[in-house]
């Protein structure tokens, strides 16, 4: 097994690539009608982990000849992610994102719809620069999966009988699809073969599912300073997540408490405190760690010229961030 590089070395190696990606994102967000470019710029300025561009670069050969295409593709993937955040915050009624007012909160629902649509459109416009119909098709499929995942979530709102399998399927669509396509695009634009594309796409999907599970645990266990949003947001919006599913399976009486908290009939924070240390949250974390292990196992196949050590570092970082 290849030893993963030290985190500082890993970040230093990617810095020039990430800097170029940020430059493209800034150029895409700005220079348009202020009604959309202003809020789009604010969304960009709020930052983020930029995990998806990092995955794309690490799944590629990072040859200078491919640099322009890879940077455009990385920016396109991040723009789709930004668009979904703007729309999801509107749908969920969220008021803050990364400690800042959401677009819907700051500028209204109509603006959030327009800004999200703008970012989606700019993502595909940017991706056409790479000259690969396969790349455009792959990102379109991922965007469709995201939309279907959001529909899954809305249909399952307040369904405290939701199964683990249904939840995981939703995670694959809502989060795993974009992680997966980021890795696949890195392989495609570096000329990797079909097997490498499949292995790297599988890696990305597993990492994305793990990321979502950990994020859902943080919703009940993390502080607003960590998450940039109020604790228990998922409960208030009726979003049923893995720690909740597993807690109810272990203690069925919790279902009525969660339902009452979602209506505001009982205090939310004491319930979050209870769920955060519940065996259900522990079991959810174990499932996320298993997804990370499956991701790492996907790298045992032919992955072309991908930076396997860096990808393993990212996978380990998903666990470390939520430790």
Shape: globular
The helix-and-strand class reads mainly alpha
What is the CATH domain class? Mainly Alpha
- What's the end-to-end separation, in Å? 23 Å
Mean pLDDT: 92
What are the secondary-structure elements, in order, as H or E? HHHHEEHHHHHHHHHHHH
Order of strands across the main sheet: 1-2
Describe this structure in words.
The chain is mainly alpha-helical and 323 residues long. It has one domain (7-321): Farnesyl Diphosphate Synthase (Orthogonal Bundle). The protein has 16 helices and two strands. Strand 1 (96-97) and strand 2 (100-101) form a beta hairpin. The longest helix has 28 residues, at 194-221. The model is unreliable at 1-5 (pLDDT under 50).
Summarize this structure briefly:
It is built from 16 helices and 2 strands.
Using brief descriptors, characterize the structure shown:
single chain; 323 residues; Farnesyl Diphosphate Synthase; 2 strands; 1% strand
